[in-house]
């Protein structure tokens, strides 16, 4: 009887120790997982701030600073080549630099920045081909190359731009940014290639329907309407864009040269 009691006691002791070990292991694993999340949560506000900072530089046409940021973001991505978002952020910075170069009349500079950005966007897609935003920025960058040399640009990059932007819209049909970029692509694409302001306006209308506070969509709507000689509507759209984003220098410039009637 005593022997049986000892055996039961030893068995219960072993089971208890195993339970304690399992509980401690799960607790330690939970703490490790929590610690992994902390850096990510801390980084989110920084990433949002960085994106806002790039937009501010774009709005004020700070081209040199944008080029410096793009180069810095590319260097950071090269140190972490498996981080798709890192390549994407660099591509966005190059796209903004290309945009400002075009706004200030430097088509060659715009082309160089856009080409650099395409290489980064391609890397992001190679890592993660299921992100609509990556295709949006790739299509935007390909489209930004075209104005510097329209005929050669359309032949080489026109198809790439359209395919990437079509994919972005298909993957995320509720993305205002995807329709906006799709419309800008149509705006620069000649009508005999399926582009032109009429098709662009349809995309801008869709972008505004999805996001009524998109200053960029109203800006491009105004530019496309002006190209169709609808000056009153163009002026109204540009005024709306400026009201939504009062710091955008290019919007002010476009509004200033658009007749009210």
Tell me about this structure:
The chain is mainly α and 261 residues long. It has two domains: 44-172, Alpha Horseshoe (Serine Threonine Protein Phosphatase 5, Tetratricopeptide repeat); 178-261, Tetratricopeptide repeat domain (Serine Threonine Protein Phosphatase 5, Tetratricopeptide repeat). The protein contains eleven helices and no strands. It has helices spanning 2-59, 63-79, 84-103, 107-127, 132-145, 150-171, 176-188, 197-210, 215-227, 231-244, 249-256. It is globular. 40% of the residues are buried. Mean pLDDT is 87; it is low at 36-48.
Question: How would you describe this structure in keywords?
Answer:
single chain, 261 residues, mainly alpha, Serine Threonine Protein Phosphatase 5, Tetratricopeptide repeat, 2 domains, 11 helices, 0% strand, globular
């Amino acid at each position: 009887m005593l022997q049986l009691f000892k055996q039961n006691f030893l068995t219960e002791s072993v089971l208890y120790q195993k339970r304690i070990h399992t509980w401690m292991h799960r607790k330690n694993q939970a703490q490790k997982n929590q610690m992994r999340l902390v850096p990510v949560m801390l980084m989110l506000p920084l990433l949002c701030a960085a994106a806002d900072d790039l937009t501010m530089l774009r709005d004020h046409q700070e081209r040199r600073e944008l080029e410096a940021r793009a180069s810095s973001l590319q260097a950071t991505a090269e140190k972490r080549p498996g981080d798709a978002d890192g390549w994407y952020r660099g591509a966005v910075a190059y796209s903004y630099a290309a945009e400002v170069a075009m706004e200030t009349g430097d088509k060659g500079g715009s082309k160089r920045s856009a080409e650099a950005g395409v290489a980064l966007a391609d890397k992001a897609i190679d890592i993660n081909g299921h992100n609509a935003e990556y295709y949006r920025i790739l299509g935007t960058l390909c489209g930004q190359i075209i104005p510097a040399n329209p005929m050669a640009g359309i032949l080489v990059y026109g198809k790439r731009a359209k395919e990437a932007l079509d994919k972005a819209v298909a993957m995320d049909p509720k993305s205002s940014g995807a329709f906006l970029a799709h419309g800008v692509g149509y705006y620069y694409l000649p009508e005999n290639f399926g582009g032109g302001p009429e098709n662009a306006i349809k995309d801008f209308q869709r972008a505004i329907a999805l996001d009524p506070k998109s200053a960029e969509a109203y800006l491009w709507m105004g530019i496309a309407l002006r190209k169709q000689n609808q000056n009153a509507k163009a002026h109204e759209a540009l005024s709306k864009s400026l009201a939504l984003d009062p710091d955008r220098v290019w919007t002010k410039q476009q509004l200033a040269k658009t007749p009210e009637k």
